[in-house]
Design goal:
Rossmann fold; 10 helices; alpha/beta
């Protein structure tokens, strides 16, 4: 199936380099090759508070729903226990009309953790539970890892290079990040079920 997917990050300026390759791998794992994944750049939401406003998401849905099969909102959890409930609310309040589906998901704790999940050469002493539990993994883990790989000064602080590498090891990301596995299942259901059955 040639799925057409729009990814709506909280701020595309850095997140797009992580999300486009990883979401492409996720969608293709869910429904087969040929996915067309695009990251929403208009409007620039500029932060999680804007991405969690149903009125802002309704604007995006109205603009793009006729062009895509699925709209995915992906934000960082940032240690906020109530974020899942808020995402559920946004899904209900901004649901598209017609065959397009809206799904909202949180990365635990930040999308850069999905990249780290794919890597097998972490510095000595790093533990997965510690990476997952860290509220600010970009600063504590992703930045140092990018530096270790010689990418800290590269464009997008290594996100582009490392995320493309992570997408090639998507199965490991899905195994280590339960929200990715759950999202893949939801994407499969949304894209393979007839609209009336959703």
């Amino acid at each position: 199936m040639r799925a057409r997917v729009l990814v709506v990050p909280e701020d595309f300026r850095q997140d797009q380099y992580v999300l486009k390759p990883l979401v492409t791998a996720l969608v293709e794992a869910a429904v087969g090759p040929g996915a067309v994944v695009r990251v929403c750049q208009d409007p620039l939401l500029g932060g999680v508070s804007e991405a969690l406003k149903p009125e802002r998401i309704r604007e995006i849905v109205a603009k793009y729903q006729a062009m895509v099969d699925l709209i995915l909102i992906i934000v960082d959890r940032d240690g906020e226990e109530g974020r899942r409930a808020r995402l559920d609310f946004v899904e209900r309040e901004a649901a598209p009309t017609g065959p397009c589906t809206l799904i909202a998901e949180q990365a635990w704790q930040e999308v850069e953790v999905w990249v780290l999940a794919a890597m097998t050469d972490w510095p000595k002493g790093w533990r997965w539970k510690e990476i997952r539990a860290e509220r600010d993994p970009k600063e504590r883990f992703f930045g140092p890892y990018a530096a270790k790989r010689g990418l800290a000064q590269s464009p997008y602080e290594g996100r582009d290079t490392l995320a493309r590498e992570a997408a090639r090891s998507y199965k490991r990301v899905r195994e280590l990040c339960e929200e990715v596995a759950a999202l893949e299942a939801r994407v499969r259901d949304a894209l393979l079920s007839p609209p009336a059955a959703r």
